[in-house]
Amino acid sequence: MEADIVSDTKWADFEPDEDYDVDSINAQQLTGFETAPDADGIKTVTSYTKNRQGQTVKIIKRIKEIRIPRRCHKSAKLRASQDSFQVEQSTESGITMVSQDEIFIEQPVSRRFFNEEEDNLDLIYAPTDINVTRATRELKQKFKSLREDADSVFDMEERDGPSKYIPPSRKEGGDRRGSDENTIRVTNLSEDVREKDLLELFSKVGRIQRAYLAKHKETQSSKGFAFITYTTRQEALNAINKLNRQGYDSLLLNVEWAKPPSKERQF
User: Fold this and answer.
1) What angle (nearest 5°) sits at the alpha carbon of residue 185, between those of residues 182 and 187?
2) Rounded to two decimals, what is the model's pTM?
3) Where is it found, in Gene Ontology cellular component terms (predicted)?
4) CA-only gyration radius of the chain, Å
5) What is the CATH number of the domain that holds 193?
6) Number of domains present in the structure of the chain
7) Which domain holds residue 193?
């Protein structure tokens, strides 16, 4: 192991000699020296020390220096030359104090503990009856009772409210009979027709209140007929006079009054 050498004398200032009296050397003036590396990279280090008898002992060491190149990134070298984070600029050593309070470190709880706790809760709060049919029937009865309570409250609010005059035309389906009188039936429609097409065509005659296009459930295509309800009967009559036997989508439209529903279908 290479010893630490502290000397103010360079190796060229002193040439070692075998006949030189080493006892006369002042240790304060010369503590050691070293030669320059030779062709093989070996240098000679000479040092002096005192033994237990007080005699001066000369120590000669031959040391070979080997340089191993190491590649380093430029950014890493730049960071190494920078000042460390939160390091004081002064060279004075800081004060290190030991805390007098006892510090407890909480151990992290594993996921296994939570899983076991959840399993225990499931066992505690698990229902005793797991019959699905019975549970479904009880839920239906519960919702039915809640809906009946809400309907009863709504009826009581209507009874308690102020009474208003209702014209006969609006009582017991009066609006429906009035709208049936303003409804026309359109037939001979193509399968590609849509409700927006009917609204675009028949709205040119008058104000449309409702439009219904019969469709197939599977294909959602038109069945070939529709019903158009206007605001007034005169507007419905104008639609019959203007749009009956009119060409639309390579077909002639049949526009007529819609037949009123039978008495059995009236409510």
Assistant:
1) 165
2) 0.35
3) eukaryotic 43S preinitiation complex; eukaryotic 48S preinitiation complex; eukaryotic translation initiation factor 3 complex
4) 55
5) 3.30.70.330
6) 2
7) 176-265
